Amino acid sequence: xxxxxxxxxxxxxxxxxxxxxxxxxxxxxxxxxxxxxxxxxxxxxxxxxxxxxxxxxxxxxxxxxxxxxxxxxxxxxxxxxxxxxxxxxxxxxxxxxxxxxxxxxxxxxxxxxxxxxxxxxxxxxxxxxxxxxxxxxxxxxxxxxxxxxxxxxxxxxxxxxxxxxxxxxxxxxxxxxxxxxxxxxxxxxxxxxxxxxxxxxxxxxxxxxxxxxxxxxxxxxxxxxxxxxxxxxxxxxxxxxxxxxxxxxxxxxxxxxxxxxxxxxxxxxxxxxxxxxxxxxxxxxxxxxxxxxxxxxxxxxxxxxxxxxxxxxxxxxxxxxxxxxxxxxxxxxxxxxxxxxxxxxxxxxxxxxxxxxxxxxxxxxxxxxxxxxxxxxxxxxxxxxxxxxxxxxxxxxxxxxxxxxxxxxxxxxxxxxxxxxxxxxxxxxxxxxxxxxxxxxxxxxxxxxxxxxxxxxxxxxxxxxxxxxxxxxxxxxxxxxxxxxxxxxxxxxxxxxxxxxxxxxxxxxxxxxxxxxxxxxxxxxxxxxxxxxxxxxxxxxxxxxxxxxxxxxxxxxxxxxxxxxxxxxxxxxxxxxxxxxxxxxxxxxxxxxxxxxxxxxxxxxxxxxxxxxxxxxxxxxxxxxxxxxxxxxxxxxxxxxxxxxxxxxxxxxxxxxxxxxxxxxxxxxxxxxxxxxxxxxxxxxxxxxxxxxxxxxxxxxxxxxxxxxxxxxxxxxxxxxxxxxxxxxxxxxxxxxxxxxxxxxxxxxxxxxxxxxxxxxxxxxxxxxxxxxxxxxxxxxxxxxxxxxxxxxxxxxxxxxxxxxxxxxxxxxxxxxxxxxxxxxxxxxxxxxxxxxxxxxxxxxxxxxxxxxxxxxxxxxxxxxxxxxxxxxxxxxxxxxxxxxxxxxxxxxxxxxxxxxxxxxxxxxxxxxxxxxxxxxxxxxxxxxxxxxxxxxxxxxxxxxxxxxxxxxxxxxxxxxxxxxxxxxxxxxxxxxxxxxxxxxxxxxxxxxxxxxxxxxxxxxxxxxxxxxxxxxxxxxxxxxxxxxxxxxxxxxxxxxxxxxxxxxxxxxxxxxxxxxxxxxxxxxxx
Length: 1071
Hints:
By secondary structure, the protein is mainly α. It is built from 50 helices and 13 strands.
């Protein structure tokens, strides 16, 4: 077994996975082996509180999991919209147990109890302990543990049933007695216990067990035993051993329908169907009912438009009855769903209005029958009725003609039509009926206030009053079902035979699961599949082709994207455009204009259907190829525009198509198309890196570097150069080293590269190497490239390196040069990075006001781009600089707001709490200063933190200095931990920060010479001192070391290389 979750989470024979969070992600992905689990689902299931940046948090966790899986035959792959565990179902113990239960159940049913007992026994042997107890507080764990507990119980039931049927019953009474004690209200287990007692010659005990069970049911539920248990009781009383041995396998699921109202029933002969009042309230539609009533006051024809299952018929019926109650005017119902011929429409309308067909008595008085239209006009003359014409879509052209006759026959008559497509009749007012309102993903409060969740609760309680319904799980189920009332009712009915957690786990097969609507419902509403297929069969061939092909675009599409992906074979771009309009009219596409352009989106229910139809049509390969070709085309056009002029517009375009581009990238990787994968990945990696999504780059980099097909050399070189520095967020990895080697071979080999590719590649190699000669070579190649962006980028690189060397003046000069270059190109990312660099330089020089101004500029540029982690980090730094500049109130307000916006982000907590500690120090609030640093240190040590080590060092070293400022010197452990992190990261100013803190400790302990040496060394590499310049009577001052000693140390190390400075710091602080 490759992955085991039926006990402690393991990989392989004995592969323990470190970290509860990593184990939780592995277990959650293992529950859907080989299938993509969406990012939102992972966030909801794995994190107890929603992380501030969900996508980054999942990327980071996936990266840690990949490292943990290194060396095992299992890996985690990024995919469109989520991640998947690349493993077969047969390699996950829980999936094997599910399959063995199905096999065992089938064997019992087929009369082969020996095979059933063997299969169930093998499944039960897979349990190694209680499942999912080692995954921390992941929200999915209790739910899945309960489901797996139910699975284990079902396996025991099935194995016991097989043993009963094959005569292996000697040990069953004791086992079943214990199970009944654990599950006292489980009638199936009690029935098996009674049968086992009879089989072992103890019928009197069987009857006593029945009486005990009957009393328990009466006391706990106020109910009598069910029919199956009563049958067992009767068989015991009559000594019918044959009936007892051949009793049915205890069912784990029972088809049942929701307690929906019966469909309108036919009235007496000669009259049409009448409206029936529902036994259940219409939930979540009060505002829309009032709105449509107002529309009917002003318009003669209102059409309720919406997809199948959205509740159009129920809504129209409720509205008609309300209008009848309010006005007393007649209301007629015309049902068209059962009709298949245009010729039947007018007779159905006449019947609905109470107009009889021509009979013998009519012919006796008038031997010439009057035309149907004439009878229709006569019936409606002077009428002020409301006519509900239900389910018009499949005969829409004829219905439109008849409805036109109706509204022109009387000035007072009104028509309320329900349809999946407009009637296109003069005067028609269309009212799209949306799905029921859903709680937003990640919302923790008040899911029961949303109609979709309320509907599920009401129907589930009707199905099984004692069912446990977790509001968060119910909300997730309703979101997966798109808020469609029919789908929710079908799902809620399943609670009769399974828990809501089991239901949620099986929603990947929603069409197979959601069957068995109420017997009174029309056949097209008995299953979710029937609802969608009803609409599908109304489409022409072109519309069907476009709909199934759109399913490969998870992010929806505008008209141009749809044409690029869907126009192949006999379908051209013009046909796609026409089909989009038709599909939107048929309510099979959701039209979204929120982004300023019109996009078409599939509901997930329709997408799943379209995906199956794509396979059935044999078009999967062609549609996937079209998706990849579109992604390559967009990526190639976007890539040069991600630097300089046009950057903001193209970032917006990539944001809009992000999920589709990721789907194209995944498809190219899966097909082994290296050239296409690299082309798309280059654009996406530039984009992700600029937004601070470094784990995204690193995660995809691991997959890209494993590809070995031909690719464009320049594309490959730049891609590798982007991946290398971003891969460092996960620490040194084999992937990072392999990428470096490939980059070096391309740049130093004889491949023909573009000037930018060669210059950028050399720059990254030089930055990773750090040798002066190589740095000069990279700078010269960048200058010679003729590319102004490349020159500005080189200046930024060298500015950051100078800062790391402690050469603050050179860093400032180069950053200013880079900033001027990026400004000339209108490159907002470059402006953000250079403004942030200069801001931190000013902060190190003690000019807080200048630092805040520059960081303000960085925040504005990052905001324009929609940056994630980098933008958030610079906002935190700006707030801290405000505190240091004396604007304490505003700084505290900004820090507090950021913590409220990102309540579960340990990186935000680390920096923000450190900033609040500095604010408390400025105010002389010693208790708060220490408390804030304690919280900062706890956040810095969190398993979930994935940001740069500098944040953790700042918290640890700051907490140490804070203790020194209140006269404590118990800081050795804090400083040792901070130093270890700083050295591992290699950021020299951060090492210097720790050195200065050690110097302050030496000063406090009376070792002035050591203090002067450490402070001078720290300042030599450009360190920023924490809390050192805060003066307040409540704080102990940290005096400067003796100036003569300090000056002597400055002179001694003035020309010492930075690497030597760091080495000397190490010799002083290591124990």
